[in-house]
């Protein structure tokens, strides 16, 4: 089981002591125990927290499986390879923080394993439904249910690199668990992302100045190395538009009116617009 490979970097979410494998359980020396699910993931949350629902992650998988976001995934894989250090000490270990149903981590694991011979992929998400789906399809990576907004269940400087796609950001924790000099790739929506669809269906707006906001958030502990944008058009059928709406936070905000408008949409062309920020964990941080 790949989880045994990453056990040395895991800490107990309750008391921060190391976690060790005992049969199908991760246990700290104070006796906090977390069972490995039959799909191979571990739930480190003590209580269920709101995350993406099963309906949302199933829609996302169906949408991703049509390859519409493959160019984003390819960009992520290429940029991570470019920005990883030439000499990697210890195992190549990459975290996808907010991995959802595992699409980006699964493709990254395959791509970097080809180049480096081996990669330890770790995916964290707050949604157990998402993690269960991820663990089933991508047995080569390790998946944990945990809350990105709290202390991560990982030791300091555990990671060679990290990706974060349309997911929550925790600057202090990302700085703590990354090795000095390690790359952190963050993908956020650009201002034109799904603009035609957002106008037509009155979907959620994208936060103004999001890019600048994220850059400022990370400025204390990370250097911004590069900024890439990726924009293209998608031609979607009605069912795919529905997947695209359901797989995002718009799911929580669907009115009867917008559902009716969605039902009337036939083929539709919309823009996808991604911004990839390449950060590097500073070599030293004055605290
Ligand atoms: Zn403990």
Automatic annotation (TrEMBL):
Pfam families: Methyltransf_25, Zn_ribbon_RlmA
Gene3D superfamilies named among the record's database cross-references: Vaccinia Virus protein VP39
Protein name: 23S rRNA (Guanine(745)-N(1))-methyltransferase
All copies of domain 23S rRNA (guanine(745)-N(1))-methyltransferase N-terminal, residue ranges: 11-45
InterPro entries recorded: Methyltransf_25, RlmA_N, rRNA_m1G-MeTrfase_A_prd, SAM-dependent_MTases_sf
Residue intervals passing through the bilayer: none
SUPFAM superfamilies the record matches: S-adenosyl-L-methionine-dependent methyltransferases
Segments forming domain Methyltransferase: 94-181
Superkingdom of this protein's organism: Bacteria
């Amino acid at each position: 089981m790949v989880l045994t490979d990453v056990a040395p970097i895991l800490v107990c979410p309750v008391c921060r002591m190391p976690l060790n494998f005992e049969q199908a359980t991760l246990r700290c020396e104070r006796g906090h125990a977390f069972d490995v699910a039959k799909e191979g993931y571990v739930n480190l949350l003590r209580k269920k927290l709101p995350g993406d629902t099963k309906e949302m992650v199933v829609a996302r998988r169906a949408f991703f499986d049509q390859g519409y976001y493959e160019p984003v995934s390819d960009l992520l894989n290429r940029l991570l390879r470019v920005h990883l250090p030439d000499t990697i000490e210890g195992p190549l270990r990459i975290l996808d923080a907010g991995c959802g149903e595992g699409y980006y981590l699964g493709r990254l694991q395959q791509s970097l394993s080809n180049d480096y011979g081996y990669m330890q992929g770790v995916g964290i998400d707050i949604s157990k439904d998402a993690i269960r789906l991820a663990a089933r399809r991508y047995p080569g990576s390790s998946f944990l249910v945990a809350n990105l907004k709290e202390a991560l269940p990982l030791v300091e400087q555990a990671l060679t690199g990290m990706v974060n796609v349309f997911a929550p950001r925790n600057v202090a924790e990302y700085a703590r668990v990354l090795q000095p000099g390690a790359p952190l790739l963050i993908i956020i929506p650009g201002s034109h992302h799904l603009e035609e669809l957002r106008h037509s269906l009155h979907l959620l707006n994208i936060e103004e100045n999001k890019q600048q906001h994220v850059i400022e958030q990370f400025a204390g502990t990370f250097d911004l190395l590069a900024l890439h944008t990726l924009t293209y058009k998608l031609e979607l059928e009605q069912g795919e538009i529905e997947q695209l709406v359901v797989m995002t936070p718009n799911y929580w905000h669907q009115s009867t009116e917008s559902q009716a408008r969605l039902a009337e949409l036939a083929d539709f062309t919309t823009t996808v617009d991604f911004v990839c920020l390449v950060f590097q964990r500073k070599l030293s941080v004055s605290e």
